[in-house]
Amino acid sequence: MTTEQILSFSVIAGMMAVFIWDRFRYDVVACCALVVAVALGVVKPDHAFSGFSDDIVIIVGSALVVSAGVARSGIVDVAIKKFFPNLNSVRTQMALLMIVVAVLSAFIKNIGALAIMMPVAFQFARRAGVSPSRYLMPMAFSALLGGLMTQIGTSPNIVVSRLRGEMTGTPFTMFDFTPVGGILTLVGVTFLMFFYWLVPERQKQSNSIEEAVEISNYASEATVTGQSTMMGKPLAELLRLGDGEVVATAVLRGPSRMSPFPDIILREDDSVLLEGRSAALERVVSSAKLRLSGKALNGPGKVEQDLISIEAVISHQSPLAGVSARNLALSYTRGVNLLAVSRRGERLRERLSDLVLKEGDVIVLQGARTTLPGVLQDLALLPLAQQEIMLGTQRKALIPIIILALAMISTALGFAPVAVAFFAAALGMAVFKAVPLNDIYKAVDGPILVMLGALIPVSDSLRTTGGSELIAGWLGQVAHSLPPYSAIALIMITAMAVTPFLNNAATVLVMGPIAVSFATTLGFKPEAFLMAVAIGAGSDFLTPVGHQCNTLVMGPGGYRFSDYPRLGLPLSFLIVLVSVPALLWFWPVQ
């Protein structure tokens, strides 16, 4: 073993130990490991920042933006309400999410399947009152398992198919992977459904100021129109759209004010006074196609404006204090609409137009992105953590879905690499305003991308110093004396162990020839050994950096590095235990 190899192994081992210790944030640890590796000479200075241009960084960042666009579209809310209106159990929700992700991953890129379903997981988590961390890691693992079922499901399957063609003249076909991959997916998803609790319930590690000051008791006024889906239906059905987070304080019909009994049948022009979180109010208003108070700021005969809604606090200097919204006439004098009001410790039961505003009230104003900041300054209003919210903004329901579909079709048909397709999809979300420009950089999880960019050259030092070939040599000496099932298991375990430090395709390129060599020396057919390499390389459940699906959920799930082996280690053991006999059954070695 050379000095460079010893240093490379030492840096990686030390970095993993600090990750598991979990006293420092993961991006800081990765950057420190990079600096140490450069100082010791195992990473060349001119390659120190090569990781930041790696496709994985682009794929993960772009997928986060695409997922945010899908979440904002509202299509997720509609799908859940229509197809799964009563799905409230965490286990049944998780089963649905994992099965859908696994099946999609067999035919499209697994990170794309995961990006599609992540917004659904957030909706389910809100409905069940649990952290999204309960869902996200099992979903990421299901995406990896689903990718094992077909040739195009994951990169290792494609590479190992090509290797078989080069070495034997006959490549694997599309569904050669399905018998064993299907069994592993079924067993793995079942395991995850019953043992998801092995991962502690986490909260997002990088909570923003916006999330910390979120208001939970906004009062708003919404009117039933002729286009509303709730016209002629009971009030209880309207409130059901809020998943228990919205209550009605009154129903106003002409001059009459009625108590909000659940069986009141809503009519056109009825106004409902609602109270709840802004996000929940927005779901109710948009799903039911209600009209919020104020006049239309866009429409026929008006200049099209980029409308936003923002929270602000009424200061003691504001001219709004002590005046009702009706007297202020903000829609006509300032070109903004008052959409909601929150008053600490008080439930508001008046029309917004009749409510006398007070110092300290938090209000939601809707206006043009270019003029609203000036209005806030003129009225001495303090923006709440510079937070922009969805209430009163127009959702673009179909555009994000079309953009994502085009990206997935492009990758499936080979028109564009995954990194290019997802980068173009993220750009499309910005160009078509499916995600506001201000929110693009909020959706991109900076610490995760920095960790990836710093880790890639450190991990690659295992290859550049010859460490991977050294491992292969040791493995060859041991495996030649083992029976077939033990040799297959050893090949698979080694591929699982190496994948976090090489990318999974590189793992197949390194381990594939070794596997064929074992099979030839022992007088066995190579197919089972090549399949073992593909399964091991495609089953990285131990770290957040071995596969982009694991990385994608780390920030939103609030996971720590040490959380992954808690669930991933027993799952990896189960995969080895099940796949070895399955491989020997479907791909006999003699």
TrEMBL record:
It is found in: Membrane. It is a multi-pass membrane protein. Its main location: membrane. The keyword Repeat applies. The chain crosses the membrane at residues 24-43, 55-75, 95-118, 139-160, 180-199, 397-427, 487-516, 567-587. It holds the Pfam family TrkA_C. Residues 206-290, 297-381 form the RCK C-terminal domain. The keyword Transmembrane applies. Keywords: Membrane, Repeat, Transmembrane, Transmembrane helix, Transport. This is SLC13 family permease.
